[in-house]
């Protein structure tokens, strides 16, 4: 197991390094003078000072080494458009809103999706089952921005606020503001989870050990809790990581529609404003977050299902 | 008195040894069988027809219509759907009906292109990796693992920053990331299949590895590949719609369903039709692709049916 974790962490470092390097060189080899991007041409002396400040007087490889060194010390750089604003401050400032939306969406999506999937599997070929299947197919077919707009139009306004996000006490206050975004962000994962869970439960129910459990005289509840649930949850973990990534990238859109001051919205803003240090910082942050979650899921999967670990070591 | 039974009495009448092996009924191949099953599935057939209609409309309507999809008319902005403009006009007075089908071209093109790239590259990559095994497999799968770790959106954003926003960047990013899932899937299939006797027979007859992969292994994984591709197409269209929605995808004057929905969303409270039509178009196309994928999976691999 230790070797497996080490191997995964090794890939993590390589992937991270590739992303950082690719991001850095893509941003730093763009044509044009990065200092003279404003509408007014700066005087040469000012431009020269700025070049020295941003390190553009040094060759690109030299800057790369400095950038890597800064990253290792946890310094993500400083905005070129808003002097004095560091990327670290932005991430500290904006990430909680995104994280809350993400956590709520993941929890809600997972809970509702799993419950729907289990119910559908047990009530197979009834109207409940068909309803769940319909939700599952609609959920992967309707983009979240369409659903978000629909929610704003139908539910929002009179009952719930359409846009906005609590600005003080980011984690706990203003729950009514978070309901619609959470619904919109989690709809896709509800669909995926319920679909997978239904298949998984049906597969488990066909196994001989369920028959054994029944023959032993266990109650229906005990069979479900001890045998069906535990075994059917295993495949769900594999789709959990991609789902998480989906929620992170989905947040670019959801945050924009609901005017949530999160990191996803800032990311899109910084791309449209071509604020290169900030684009690099947020790209690296998002990728790191994404990759870490995948690696954690893989390790967790290895702990829960020993078969994965064994085959992982053999190969 | 025992009756004499002669040998002739025991011969079957109308039985000819020479035609014993003749096949009376027409031979049903795997694909014919699958098509037969698919034909019975009303939902899948309905999806197929709908997709064909959408596809043909995207190709034909912009050609046949006299209205230019970029043509603006400031005097006729935000018109409700009517006889002159069937789906109304947008904020610049452009005809939504024609734009919808032009946008569909981009959306479907992205979906199909991503599918083709992942199909060709992913199957070959997975096939080679699975067939050779050993060190080659190790190296190739490590590369895949690294690429899988990079989120698709990040790749698109990086490519579009360095090459400029628009269709080419989307397509390049798609080419970089789309094939990994299929490569893994095909590799797994090939690992199982290559132990079969027909592969050994082919090897013994002196077939080259490429021939074995292309002629024997990949055709046997076709059902998995087709089903996976059908489900991937809506995924690519989704990604395009997302990116165009946040302004990183297709740039004006070109349009796509995602870009149209983004514009429509801003006008939603007063002119809901501007959001409605692109939204319905995306959802309907995704839905039919997903339903068709379900049908194909059931038809090609009846074991999987739940």
Molecular structure report:
Chain B: Pfam families: BPD_transp_1 (PF00528), OppC_N (PF12911). The complex is a heterodimer of chains A (315) and B (306). With 315 residues, chain A is an all-alpha fold. Chain A has a domain at 95-308: MetI-like fold (Orthogonal Bundle), CATH 1.10.3720. Helices cover 76% and strands 0% of the residues of chain A. Chain B is mainly alpha-helical. Chain B has helices at 30-40, 42-64, 96-132, 134-149, 152-163, 167-177, 180-193, 197-204, 209-220, 222-245, 257-266, 273-300. Chain A binds chain B through residues 11-12, 14-15, 18-19, 22-23, 26-27, 29-30, 137-138, 140-143, 145-146, 149-150, 152-153, 198-199, 202, 245, 248-250, 252-253, 256-257, 268, 271-272, 274, 279, 283, 286-287, 290-291, 294, 315, and chain B through 138, 142, 145-146, 149-154, 157-158, 161-162, 234, 238, 241-242, 245-248, 258, 261-262, 265, 268-269, 272, 275, 279, 282-283, 286-287, 290-291, 294, 306.
Measured as a percent range, the helix fraction of chain B is 55-70%
Per DSSP, the total helix count of chain B is: 12
For the record, what CATH class of the domain at 95-308 in chain A applies? Mainly Alpha
Write down the oligomeric state.
Answer: heterodimer
Helix and strand pattern of chain B: HHHHHHHHHHHH
Chain-averaged pLDDT of chain B? 80
- Give the full name of the CATH homologous superfamily of the domain at 95-308 in chain A: MetI-like
Largest sheet of chain A: none
H/E series of chain A: HHHHHHHHHHHH
Q: From the helix content, strand content and strand pairing of chain A, which structural class follows?
A: mainly alpha
Gross CATH architecture of chain B: Orthogonal Bundle
CATH domain topology of the domain at 95-308 in chain A: MetI-like fold
Task: Bin the strand percentage of chain A.
Answer: under 5%
Portion of residues in beta strands of chain B equals under 5%
> Helicity range of the residues of chain A?
over 70%
* Radius of gyration from the alpha-carbon trace of chain B, in angstroms: 27 Å
Shape of chain A: globular
Distance between the termini of chain B: 65 Å
**Mind describing the biggest β-sheet of chain B?**
none
Name of the CATH homologous superfamily of chain B = MetI-like
Number of helical regions of chain A: 12
